[in-house]
Specification:
- This protein is globular.
- The longest helix is centred in the middle third of the chain and has 22 residues.
- It has 12 helices and 17 strands.
- The protein has a 6-stranded mixed β-sheet with strand order 4-3-2-1-5-6.
- The chain has 2 domains: 180 residues, Creatinase/prolidase N-terminal domain (Creatine Amidinohydrolase, Chain A, domain 1, 3-Layer(aba) Sandwich); 229 residues, Creatine Amidinohydrolase.
- By secondary structure, it is of the alpha+beta class.
Length: 424
């Protein structure tokens, strides 16, 4: 870990020093108290004992890194440790986790239920919601109150959640603290799943499969990308999915050759490829899946690309075993895809870790099946294998699985056929 240089206090000096109006302070305190008494923890995703075990593991990692406290602002990590659960990921929130002593959750007025109904930590503090002005100053005061003002404090500057404005205020409010980049201290803990987490992922996989099957059912001439996506979305919600980290991805024709684009009212025509990438969500755990369909008889070119994708996917799944590295698996994938490599574009990763996720992505960038990644695979790690081979200006074929690393190899969480789906 490296010490992070703190931004100048210039920004902080010129921010308005406004918080909540004085007359509102008691109302907020009463609101927090009432929620905790009436619904506290009722939307907690796992038993408190599981969260306590996670916190204990985080504290062991903090001790190894010589950290006295950790400020957890990345939403998946905050959820993982504190149960914090919201779609309002743009609002500031932070878990103040001392290596010793009681933790606290700081949130904004709008997100108090995210820390009370969905959380288990009793010490909840409220920062302004409108403009979030002064939230960093309040956060610094909470840290100082816990006797940590001159200590080594881990922060997460490489991940989403820590606003530069907040970081500037924290630095100004804690001039004697050493702020240390601990961005991935908690993310590393999330790589290996518990039995309860695996149950969530299997439920999510079932939701995803329901969406893919429903979308297959509406592919026909004259239907639009919106029709296809709507069918998948409705089916996933009906199956039990909560709000998704990524909305359903559905493209047709030449647009299947574009990555990270989705439905836009385009009508399907005979011969079109239809690319689908869905991720149903259960208690914030996502199991993503890619499939490709063709409206009518597939061309020889589409068949050839699909065969290359399937061969590569099979090679990646066979290679993903405990003790192997992400690099090892990627090299097997590279060899399997050699026949198509000069024609098709593949972004470079043969897999990435999935688990807890919030909008705008289920991919949190903490583990990869990619060249140069020497992280060793362990049982109960979970990866999405996003194998989409795209021929620029022509079409693309994507077929993937979400796989669990087992004691001896790996297994897909879905049993849905991978072959190119032909819609007549």
């Amino acid at each position: 870990m490296t010490t992070v240089p703190i931004a100048s206090s210039f920004l902080y000096r010129f921010l308005p020093r406004r918080g909540h109006p004085k007359g509102n302070a008691m109302e907020i305190a009463e609101y927090i108290k009432t929620l905790q008494e009436r619904v506290g923890g009722t939307e907690l995703t796992f038993p408190v004992s599981e969260f306590e075990a996670r916190v204990a593991a985080a504290r062991r990692a903090m001790a190894a890194a010589d950290l006295d406290a950790l400020l957890v602002t990345h939403r998946p990590d905050l959820h993982y440790l504190a149960g914090y659960h919201t779609f309002g990921v743009g609002n500031h929130a932070c878990l103040v986790l001392p290596r010793e002593g009681a933790p606290a959750v700081q949130t904004t007025a709008m997100e108090i239920p995210s820390a009370t109904a969905a959380g288990w930590i009793p010490d909840v503090r409220c920062a302004p919601w409108v403009g979030q002005m002064g939230a960093g100053g309040q956060l610094a005061a909470i840290v100082a109150e816990k006797g940590l003002g001159g200590k080594r404090i881990g922060i997460q500057p490489q991940l989403s959640g820590l606003l530069p404005m907040i970081l500037g205020q924290v630095g100004a409010g804690l001039p004697n603290a050493t702020l240390v980049d601990a961005s991935h201290l908690v993310t590393r803990l999330r790589l290996v799943k518990s039995a309860r987490e695996m149950e969530c992922l299997r439920m999510a996989a079932a939701y995803t499969e329901a969406g893919i099957r429903a979308s297959y059912g509406v592919i026909a001439p004259g239907k639009t990308e919106n029709d296809v996506a709507r069918a998948g979305y409705d089916a996933m919600i009906a199956a039990g999915s909560e709000f998704m980290s990524v909305q359903p991805i559905a493209t047709t024709g030449v647009r299947t050759g574009y990555s990270h684009q989705t439905y836009r009212r385009n009508a399907l025509m005979q011969g079109d490829t239809v690319f689908l990438e869905y991720g149903g969500c259960h208690l914030r755990y996502t199991a993503a899946l890619m499939r490709t369909a063709v409206l009518g008889k597939p061309s020889d070119a589409v068949r050839r690309v699909a065969d290359a994708v399937l061969a590569t996917l099979e090679a990646v799944i066979a290679a993903a075993k405990p003790g192997r590295t992400g690099h090892d698996v990627a090299m097997e994938g590279r060899r399997a895809s050699a026949s198509i490599a000069r024609e098709a574009f593949l972004p470079g990763a043969y897999g990435y870790h999935v688990g807890v996720g919030f909008p705008p992505t289920w991919a949190d960038g903490i583990g990869f099946l990619a060249e140069g990644n020497e992280d060793v695979l362990e049982p109960e790690m979970v990866f999405h294998t996003p194998l989409a081979f795209r021929l620029p200006g022509k079409f693309g074929v994507g077929i993937s699985e979400t796989i669990r690393i087992t004691n001896s190899g790996s297994e897909p969480l879905n049993t849905m056929p991978r072959d190119l789906h032909v819609a007549r």
